[in-house]
Amino acid sequence: MIHEQTSKELSANTTLSHYRIISKLGAGGMGEVYRARDARLDRDVAIKVLPASFSNDQDRLRRFEQEARATSALNHPNILTIYDIGDHEGSPYIVAELLEGEELRDVLNEGMISPRRAIDYALQIVAGLGAAHEKSIVHRDLKPENLFVTKDGRIKIFDFGLAKLRTAKVASGASSEIVTQRAITDPGTIMGTVGYMSPEQVRGQNADHRSDIFSFGAILYEMLGGRRAFQRETMAETMTAILKEEPQDLDGTNSRINPALEKLMQRCLEKKPERRFQSTSDLGFALEALSAPTSSSGDWATANTQIDEKEKASTWRSRMPWMVVGALALMLVVLSVAFFNRPSSEARAARLSFTPPPNLSFNDAQVDAAVISPDGQKIAFSATSADGKNMLYVREINSSDAKLLPGSENPLEPFWSPDSRSLAFGSNGKLKRSDLSGGNAQVLCDAARITGGTWSKDGVIVFGPDYRITFSQVSAQGGEPKQLIFKTDDNADERLQGPYFLPDGRQYLFRRNLGGDSKGIWIGSLDSQEIKLLTTNDSPFVYAPPGWLIFVRNETLVAQAFDASSITLSGEPVPIITGQVNELGNARRFSVSDNGVLVWQGKWQRDYQLVWFDREGKQTGTVDAPMKVFVGQDPALSPDGKRVVVKRDSNLWVIDLAKGTGLRITSTFSQIPTWSPDGSRIVFSGGNGGMSVKASNGLGDAELLLFGANFPAAWSPDGRFIIYLRRGVKTRRDMWVLPTFGDKKEYLLLNSPFDENNPQLSPNGRWLAYATDETGNYEIYVQSFSTDGRLGADKKRVSTSGGTFPVWRRDGSELFFVAADGQMMSSSVKTDGSEFEFGPPKALFKTRMLAWGTNFHEFDVSPDGQRFLIGTLIGEAKAPPPMVILNWTAEIKK
Predict the structure, then answer these.
(1) What is the pLDDT of residue 759?
(2) Which of 681, 716, 774, 824 is the most interior residue, by most CB within 10 Å?
(3) pLDDT tens per residue, range 393-443
(4) If DSSP codes are grouped into helix, strand and coil, which group holds residue 838?
């Protein structure tokens, strides 16, 4: 047996970069695993030190690094998180999250497990594999030793790509892969990985994602039967069995196994890849159908028939990938019919993933949402098409077709009419209504930035037109909105969000935040100015018939008994979904129908890092470690380029770039920082309920400059003017000016029916660059700016194919911006003359920025124009698919 060359064992307190070894956890042919402490982020991690021989083969090492980077981009609860890779004395190592629990192999050594537990593990394995396959990552070495069961029952897949590192192919009855197994003497263990190889792997042929599906089938067989699918006395016999023999039936071993489940497993173990499930998504749908237990053998037969039908259609699916969406629709139909016609005594919850059509994606954490209709038959969702347009779509539960709602560009906070025939939503500064019967969206009234809405059975809509603006009431047919005035002595600094009508159609619940600890869910009425506090819990919520309040608490979706007639809560909150809820503060990412269908979207986190790039797009350094974020860090370089202010955990920090040290300068929610010309102060949004300024050294208290939703963007080089953005009721974002001298009275600089954004003054203060969407797309314009703080009549468009985030080079010779396709652009400019002169924009390199067309400025440029600090996405910025739960109340009755 040939073993890899191992590295010298590491002793406690050995340091690898900023990781300190604590103890050894285990060892194998692929290296040793240690528990270590990450000094930089103050957490325990696992470090796998690979054999030193890896570093002697540069091609092998390169492939390892590529695979490790690809795997680290996977962000899924069922995949081991990779934090870092490095090299210690010639031995490569991987840094990963530290898990507590045991390998699935240890669980299986204790005997077969229950079918319910096996299905639970199977669903998690398939979910993790699906996330990897979606990014074209194939495991190739799936086995119980590479599956970990945490103490809370979660499956973690690890060692992605290590199979690629082994050099020998399977041939002549030998395999170098055996050395990855522990040296136990029973025949099955001698086979090691061979027992889980697909036939194409045994033949040494190319193995794609369907090879992982075969390995999964072998693992599922072992979980259900308590023995291995292809266990023989010798390696050669095992390989022959994989190629030519079928595993023994399980009915003699475990009579509790559902025949449909065994049928599913057998299909995974088909010898020919084209006869297996053609995707983990398809496999997952079939498993989810089986995970909703029924009470009769006839129901099992129905599920079995569904598997047969899928088998007959496999060839068609391989030729038409879009039919995967149809398979989901079929599952939804079967389960929804069973759900709506079930006997009440046998009601069970069933969970299904909602997958958008192949040409659409969920990728905007700030706006994308999926909302179930009151009748539980339709889902409205916002998604982005291949051409980058974010629109609203509706899909019937019993159909695979998604219907586009015309006129729904950039939808916000969609909500249904009580009869499930219409939708209302925010769109480009308007409150709109779309009827499912057809036609373009109807404008109901102005709404600068809707913060939620609700539709009563009497045709009244209550909505929030913007932050820190009281609710308005408007007819569902449109008209002039009427403000709802509350009789209260509270501070005027209040934020109102998410109104939700109760069954009587007059009273409604809403979120109210007065700043500090004064926040909660309140009760209002169309018939009175009186309002009443219901609970101090301040989180997104919905009312669920016949009597529940569903809300978020500590990243857990909970339900509490609520009597809508007496407006009282009772009992304790009961968990529905634990540890996976997307808690975004302002956004509600769950909804409920009148008949027990719950739709929710899992926790949305994106991997992000501040990265330095040169003009060719080559990475030259980083600021801070990678992190998971919802929105970015708003990086802004100081005028001398020696410091950067960023947002961390909703506070502002100033980082000394030479020393790498950070100083927190705010202690309340703060964002969108802008430096004073001398670098001594920073103006920002948030904090004291508006636009404030604070010394950049952190000393003293923040000074409130303007109350309300004002977003600073530029400070004139002479220090006399601060330019900021404010939303207008009819004009969306407008540019305003706050003088720092005299009476310091703000005034309007530029407003129009269009959206003005990202204003930036040239270094000599004579020219203002900004983005506006007056052409239908955001483009960069430049206009003169006088010494008395006014705009001139001249106006020139610089960008040609979309543009936002303009930044001036500090010597005034270049104007940088980001094009619609993410390209960093540069235009040579002359700003000293009486007219603004510029050259045609040139593409520098492609960026992967977090936001486009927003207030948030996710890049800045060094004073010499040679380096770019960019808030960069790591991996794919995709949201987890929404989950549909039929009969959600069964979850809280367990």
Answers:
(1) 95
(2) 824
(3) 998 876 667 899 999 988 989 999 999 999 999 998 899 999 998 889 999
(4) strand
The single-letter DSSP state of residue 235 is H
Residue with tokens 């809280």: 892
Distance CA 629, CA 635 (A): 14
pTM above 0.70, yes or no: no
Handedness of CA 750, 756, 760, 762 (dihedral sign): negative
Q: Find out whether 651 and 667 touch, Cβ atoms under 8 Å.
A: yes
Q: Is residue 429 part of a domain?
A: yes
546: preceding bond cis by omega (within 30 degrees)? yes
Which amino acids are annotated catalytic? 141
Give the domain-ending residue among 69, 97, 125.
97
Cα radius of gyration rounded to whole Å, the chain = 30
Do residues 872 and 608 lie in contact, with contact meaning Cβ atoms separated by under 8 Å?
yes
Pair 87, 121 in one domain: no
pLDDT single digits (tens) 458-467: 999 999 888 7
Work out how many domains the chain is built from and give that number.
Answer: 4
Does residue 688 form part of some domain?
yes
Hey, how many other C-beta atoms are within 10 angstroms of the C-beta on 147? 25
Spatial CA neighbour of 467 closest among 694, 754, 745, 685: 685
Report how far residue 145's alpha carbon sits from residue 21's, in angstroms, rounded to the nearest whole number: 24
Q: 283 and 396 share a domain?
A: no
Q: Are residues 332 and 365 in the same domain?
A: no
What is the average pLDDT across 79-103? 87
Mean pLDDT of the chain: 81
The answer to whether residue 2 sits within a structural domain is: no
> Is residue 5 in a domain?
no
Q: How far is CA 607 from CA 75, 584, 835, in A?
A: 8, 16, 43
What CATH number has the domain bearing residue 806? 2.120.10.30
Instruction: Count Cβ atoms within 10 A of the Cβ of residue 570 and give its class: 0-12 exposed, 13-18 middle, 19 or more buried.
Output: exposed
Show Cβ contacts of residue 538 under 8 Å, excluding neighbours closer than 6 positions: 511, 513, 519, 520, 521
Which residues have CB under 8 Å from 540's CB, separation 6+? 498, 511, 551, 552, 583, 584, 587, 588, 589, 590
Task: Report residue 737 as tokens.
Answer: 């000016």
Q: pLDDT at position 853, please?
A: 54
